[in-house]
Write a structure and sequence with these properties.
The chain contains twelve helices and two strands. The protein is mostly helical. A hairpin with a 4-residue loop joins strand 1 and strand 2.
Length: 269
């Protein structure tokens, strides 16, 4: 209990950082005509340097807002264990190195966004992919939830004590290495879910919040492993629903066009 009380300032600091990132995202959505906000949503496939920097910054802020909450148990556990060694800035080093992994993911996400927009596969207004790409991403993410790699990475993220017992290194450098390792496990656990941002809309805060809740639930709740499987089932069903609508809609349009062609001579007569 004393340890928990001593960690209240750290908890407050992490939560304030998360809240700040969410407020930044909210501002970008509600004040979309602001010059900075407009830079984060380039309408043209030809990006300026300002667009590139703004989109990257947006992704970094979003990753911190989404991924830092689920890492809080690991950060708190490290803080407890690091206090025994009395190394200054050790916990900060662990947290920063963890976030560096998601900064790297942001670089990849920016590249994917640019390529998709360039190829006409991404709507620049809603930042959503075409339905076919969305179906592919949903199926991929759904299947990945059942893979051994996903299960291994998720188990490492769900057991802070076990993680540190297996990979503990003292000192600021050691903390940095552990934070990087944890970040890689977290990336292995959540990269497919993060790509689903392109399905519901990168700047759709409701969708961003849903994915954040999904990540936090599977990584921190007691039934996290079951939740992970249910998420996989849900994603596959969502892909089937969208795919059916896409195929059925095209079939109906094709049949409607055929009927109109058949009716045309009758009208003329």
């Amino acid at each position: 209990m004393i340890l928990v009380r001593n960690q209240i300032p750290l908890i407050a600091l992490v939560l304030c950082g998360v809240l700040f990132c969410w407020l930044v995202l909210f501002w970008l959505i509600t004040d979309s005509c602001h010059p900075i906000a407009m830079l984060t949503m380039p309408m043209s496939p030809v990006w300026t340097v300002g667009n590139l920097i703004a989109v990257f910054a947006m992704w970094v802020v979003m990753m911190i807002a989404m991924m830092l909450p689920s890492a809080l148990p690991m950060i708190l556990m490290h803080h407890r264990m690091a206090k025994k060694n009395s190394h200054p800035f050790e916990n900060l080093s662990f947290t920063v190195s963890y976030l560096f992994i998601w900064v790297f993911f942001s670089v990849v996400a920016v590249a994917l966004q640019f390529i998709a927009q360039k190829a006409g596969l991404l709507d620049p207004a809603s930042l959503t992919t075409t339905k076919i790409i969305s179906v592919i991403l949903l199926i991929m993410a759904g299947i990945y939830q059942f893979t051994e790699l996903k299960n291994t990475c998720l188990s490492k993220c769900r057991t802070p004590a076990g993680f540190f017992m297996g990979y503990w290194k003292s000192g600021v450098l050691g903390a940095f290495q552990m934070g990087t390792r944890h970040g890689l496990f977290c990336l292995g656990c959540c990269w497919a879910i993060m790509l689903l941002l392109f399905v519901g809309g990168v700047m759709n805060l409701t969708w961003v919040l849903i994915l954040t809740i999904a990540v936090v639930a599977e990584k921190t709740l007691p039934a996290g492993e079951l939740i992970s499987k249910l998420i996989g089932v849900g994603l596959i069903l969502a892909a089937a629903y969208i795919g059916y609508g896409l195929f059925y809609g095209e079939s109906m349009q094709s049949m409607s066009g055929m009927n109109m062609e058949c009716m045309a001579p009758m009208k003329m007569s």
